[in-house]
Amino acid sequence: MKHQFAFFTSALFMLSGKPSFAQTVQTARVTAAEIYMNDVAQVYREATLNLKKGIRTVVIAGIEGQLIDQNSVAVEIYPKGQVIRIFPPAEVECKDDDICREFQRQLERLQSEIQQDRLELEKLTTAEKILIQNANVTNSQNLNLNLLRESINYFRTETAMLTDAKHKRKTQIDEKQQKIQELQAKIQSRNRYLQTHVRNYSALVEVPQDGQYQIGISHLIRGINWRLQQEIDIDETEKHAIVRNLAEVRLTTEERWEDAELTLINKSFDLSGKPIEFRPLRAVFFRPRPVMTIDVAPVRTQRMAETAQKILANEDAEAEQFDISSMIEETIDGETFRLSGKYRLSKDTPLTKELYRDTLPVQLKYQIFPYVETKAQLLAICHTKVHVLRLNPSVIRLNGRAVGIESNPLFLSDDSVQIRLGTVNYITAIRKRQNLYSSRSFLGSSKKDTYEYSIQVTNRRNSDVTVTVIDRIPVSTDSRIEVKFKKTGQVEPDKQGMLRWEITLQPGLSRTLEYGFEIIYPKDKVIELIEDGNENAKTSVPR
C-alpha cells in the first residue's frame, strides 16, 4: 500500500498555469495547530469529499493567514489516493468566500426591498393626488353644511394618514440605503482582505475508485500567538501558594477555528532558511490515536521510530498504530504543551488554558518602615521550588482577592523568594521625634546634635500579628563626624545603620519603641540630616 504526500519544495510540483480536469471545491477545517512563541504556527487542515475514479483537481478553498513561504505547504489524500501535482496558490474572489457572499446576499435583499418601497411610495403619492382631486370636486358641489364639514374632515384625515405613510416609507428607504453603503464598504474591505490574506490551494489527485476520501493540507501561518502567564493564589490559613501557569492563545486573522487540537511550543520557529522539517501528514490526520500503555520507554520509543520510518518510506504501517506526535517530549518546564481536548478559537474569543500548577509552602510576614510610610507591608516568603516562579506574574491573589501588582512584585534570591502583597491598613506605625528644641549642645570645639524618636505600632486586627519594624540611623563616611547610637537594650544597628525589631502584638494593642543617636562634628561645619521620606538617611558636610 502506497501513500504519498507532496511539498512545494520540488521544481516538479511548482508548475505554472491553472488547474485543469474536473474540479471539486472544498473548505478544509483546521483540526490541529502547533503554535510557536514568535507568532508562527504550523496548521493542519482536513476535509472529507466524494471523488470519482480517476484524475481530477481538488481545490482547497479559503485558507486564511499569511503563509511564511510556499515551501511550507504539504498535501496528502487518503486512503490509497495519490497527489500528482500541487498548483501555486490562487487569489480568492468574493463569489468564492462565504462571508463575502453573505454580504452580497444582504445587499441584494436590501436593494430588492428598496425597489418595493419605492413602488409603495409611488402608490401612496398617486393615492394622495386622487384624494386631492376628489376633495376639489366635493368642494365645487352644492352640499349642505354638515355634509361638507364631514367631507372636509374625511379628506384631512386621509391626507394626514397618507403623508405619514409616505414619511415612514421615505425614512425606511433612507435607512436601507445607509445599510447598503455600509455593506458595500464591508464588501470592499473583505475583498481587500481576500486579495492580501486568503488563497485557494489546488492539487491534482488520482484515486483508484469512486468513494469518500480525506484530504489534508499543512502550512505555516502568521497571525496566531500564545503567551505564558502566571497567577499566584496565596491562602493565608493553609499557608501555601498555588502557582498556576496559564497559556493565552490569540488568533488575529478573520478565520474561526472549531474543534482544533492545539500544541503550544515554548520556543521560536526557526526561519533561518534551511529546509523545513515536517512530520508526515498521515501521522496527524488519517490514523487513529490509541493510548499507549507500554511501560518501558526505550522500547516504546524504538517501536515508534520504526513506525515513523515506515510511514516516511510510504510502506504499509497499518499493523503499528502509533501516534508520531507523542514522540515530542512533554515537560512542565516549558518545551511543549499539548492541550487536552478540542478548542474553538477566533479573533473575538481568545483561549486561556491552565497548563500546570505548583503548590509552594509560604510564610506570611508583616514589615513596616516608619520613616517612609505608616502602613505595614505584607510579604509571602517561600523557601522551596523558587525556580518555578516568574518575575512578573499577571495576577497575585491573597485569600481569593486580587492584590495590586507592582512593577517588580517578586524578589528572588538563591534560596528564597519574597512576594510583595501590598500594604495593609490594620497594622500602622507613627514615628515622632522627641525633645526637638533641646537637641543641640556644644563640647569644646565640637557640636553635638541629639535625635530621639518614638515609634508607636498598633494592631487593629482581630488576631495576633508578628511584625518586623525597620528603621535606621545615619552612617558617617567622614572621619570628622561621629555617630553614636544611644542603646535601648533592644536592638543594635548593623553596618548600614539599619534597626530591626521583631514584635508580637495582640488584637487592639499598641507598643512604643524608642531609640536615639548623637552626631558629633566640628563647630565650623554644618550638618544636614536628610531623612523625611528618604529611605537612605545620610549626613553631608558642605566643603
UniProtKB/TrEMBL annotation:
Domain annotation DUF4139: ranges: 217-523
Signal peptide positions on this chain: 1-22
Keyword Signal in record: yes
Keywords from the UniProt entry: Coiled coil, Signal
Keyword Coiled coil: yes
InterPro entries: CHP02231 (IPR011935), DUF4139 (IPR037291), DUF4140 (IPR025554)
Coiled-coil region(s): 100-127, 166-193
Lineage: Bacteria, Pseudomonadati, Bacteroidota, Flavobacteriia, Flavobacteriales
Domain DUF4140, chain residue ranges per copy: 39-133
Top-rank lineage group of the source organism: Bacteria
Name of the protein described by the UniProt record: Uncharacterized protein (TIGR02231 family)
Species the sequence originates in: Schleiferia thermophila
